[in-house]
Amino acid sequence: MRDLVLAFRQVGYERRSFFRNPAAAGFTFVFPVMFLVIFGLLYGDQVYELETGPVQAIQYQMAQILVFAVVGTTFVSFVTSLAIRRDTGELKRKRGTPVSPTVVLAGVVGNGVLLSILMTVLVVGLSVVLFGATLELARIPLLVFTLVIGALAFCAIGALVAAFVPNGDAAPAIANLTIFPLYFLSGIFIPDIPDTFENVAGVLPLRPFLLALSDIFDPAGSGTPDWGNLAIVSAWGLVAAVLAVRYFRWSPRR
Amino acid sequence: MSAPVIEVSGLRKRFGDFEAVRGIDLTVERGEVLAILGPNGAGKTTTVEILEGYLERDAGDVKVLGFDPAGSPRALRRKIGIVLQECGIDRFLTCREVLQQHASFYESPRNPDELLELVGLSEKAGERVKRLSGGQQRRLDLALGIVGNPELIFLDEPTTGFDPQARRQAWEIVQALATGGTTVLLTTHYLDEAQALADRVVVFSGGQVVESGTPTELAARTGLTRISFTLPAGIAPPQVPGLERVDEGSYELQAKDPTTTLHELTGWAVAQGILLGDLAVARPSLEDTYLSLIDPAELQGAHANA
After folding, report:
1. pLDDT tens digits, B229-252
2. I want to staple B198 with a disulfide (CB 3.0 to 4.6 A). Which of A169, A238, B35, B149 is the partner?
């Protein structure tokens, strides 16, 4: 119980610290918005003929950009910030106090989830206002549920990758090198992917997350994400979390 | 008498081919201030990090407040305070926020504002950590180390980078803690720091304990008093055994029996009608003992690292 209170307080400190670094915070938000505007202007008004009926491209782009934004605020920033905090000794210092490691990590994860929800408001809001996208209000609870699953899973994967990053300077390069092939393979920047890609990307965590979100944003569909896809994302998250706890390092490499 | 706060015997730790700690025995009694002195690479930090629970030992028995620190049990972390060398703090939080955050980790913490006052950072309470100078950050480190009201505090080179005034202030804080019954384990490069703070000094060299005792005992161990003086140009020095020329017209000697030696020197000077300039008699210092204990090659290595 006490730890739960502490974890909430940690989220507060993390959030404050994040927004007091305007350069980093701004970049996190500006990047996805930039992609949304570029792709929206390029072909947001095209119409896809799906099995369920004709759908405006922006409905799918919204899901693509949202995945990019959530993975950026969770996975990429997690790898980088954990590696840097390990380098500076911030993690080592906390390890020397009675605070539970779970509380320290919960603070960072909680902040990542919070930012993901904020990103969603921004991306969906701009898609609606600028490009005429639509979202039924009744679908919002499932959207939040899917988002939280995705955000948690990518935090866990980030924590696992951070365990193997040698130092903070290498972290951004390693994070991007891991995630960019996955973005392309999973069709984050292109309208569709070939079947050969689908077979591989379908069992990796990113593509199922994208498909789950696009189910929710498909106005002609039922609005319920494919549970199989959510299960794949969750499974990746759980396995990563277990391994991350096993391999996590608090002190810089000596 | 209560059980020692720290008990170490036969401690060993190896990093690859390098054996950093080679069989160390150490006891720290409750309320004692123990200083570990030694050049870089002598095994000070490795030993302390094993006691703090950061490193696993290869061999030996270790008890800290009755706990085995290996694996860093939470019950132990509740009772100790740690001030590490170069240890990061969230740079975007303010001093007060960081202290409040750390206070929330303990069951009966000290008041963050009183601590800021104690370390002389009251004016910086609302300032972000990244805007503090190096010395101010170290003072915040010290405050963070004692925010949990620890029974035992580890200070790893706590005043490196302090200006003389901040140093005195830090010493006063440590002395106040010791008076209040807190046990202090301190590592330092500064002999005056050990002399000022420590009840007992342990000298490390090459991963082993080479000497231990109170600062006064250690200083007395060389048993030599240093006498120095200058002579006017063109005057040849007297024939006194052990007299060394330090510089043009400047002389020094280490005397076993300073009374006799001084009598000889002054007798000679009066007979010649010469004044001994800058005459100084220094009692045996910790530094002399320390330097005599440490292998010169090791000291040079320490300089190269510094």
Report:
1. 888 888 888 888 888 888 888 888
2. B35
Q: Which residues of B touch A87 (CB under 8 A)?
A: 88
Task: Please tell me which of the candidates A13, A92, A100 has its beta carbon nearest to residue B101.
Answer: A13
State which residue of chain A sits closest to B78, comparing Cα positions.
A98
- Write the single-letter amino acid at A90: E
User: Do the Cβ atoms of B87 and A100 come within 8 Å?
Assistant: no
B304 against A156, higher pLDDT: A156
- If 0-12 CB within 10 Å is exposed, 13-18 middle and 19+ buried, where does residue B149 land? middle
Q: Binning pLDDT at 50, 70 and 90, where does residue B303 land?
A: very low
At A122, is the pLDDT very low, low, confident or very high (cuts 50, 70, 90)? Answer: very high
Q: Which chain A residues are Cβ-neighbours of B138 within 8 angstroms?
A: none
Selecting from A16, A96, A99 the residue whose C-beta is nearest the C-beta of B93 gives: A16
* B229-232: long-range contacts, CB 8 A cutoff, minimum separation 24: B229/B265, B229/B276, B229/B277, B229/B278, B229/B279, B229/B280, B230/B276, B230/B277, B230/B278, B231/B274, B231/B276, B231/B277, B232/B274, B232/B275, B232/B277
Do A81 and A14 touch, CB atoms closer than 8 A? no
In whole angstroms, give the CA distance from residue B79 to residue B182. Answer: 11
Q: What single DSSP character describes residue B111?
A: P
- Nearest-by-Cβ selection for A97 from B93, B97, B148: B148
Q: Which CATH superfamily is domain B6-220 in?
A: P-loop containing nucleotide triphosphate hydrolases (3.40.50.300)
Mean pLDDT of chain A: 92
What are the start and end residues of each CATH 3.40.50.300 domain in chain B?
6-220
Q: Is B217 helix (H, G, I), strand (E, B) or coil?
A: helix
With beta carbons under 8 A apart, name residues in chain B contacting A18.
Answer: 92
Q: Is B19 helix (H, G, I), strand (E, B) or coil?
A: strand
Q: Where are the domains of chain A?
A: 2-247
Q: Cα–Cα distances in Å, from A101 out to A202, B38, B114?
A: 33, 34, 28
For residue B3, the number of C-alpha atoms closer than 13 Å in the C-beta half-sphere is 9
| B136 contacts: CB under 8 Å, gap ≥ 6 | B121, B124
What's the Cα-to-Cα distance from A82 to each of A246, B43, B94, B283, rounded to whole Å? 15, 29, 20, 53
Name residue A174's amino acid. Answer: I
Could you give the CA distance from residue A89 to residue A4 in angstroms, rounded to a whole number?
24
What is the CA B248 to chain-centroid distance, rounded?
35
**Residue A34 CB burial class (10 angstroms; 0-12, 13-18, ≥19):** exposed
Q: Which of B84, B104, B144 sits opposite A6 (nearest CB)?
A: B104
Interface residue of B14, B105, B108 to substitute, partner A, most A CBs within 10 Å: B105
Q: In 10 A of CB B233, how many CB atoms?
A: 7
- pLDDT tens digit string along B34-51? 999 988 888 999 999 999
- The ipTM estimated for the assembled molecules is 0.88
Among B90, B100, B140, the residue to mutate for chain A (most A Cβ within 10 A) = B90
Token pair, residue B81, equals 């305070």
HSE toward the beta carbon, residue A205, CA cutoff 13 A = 26
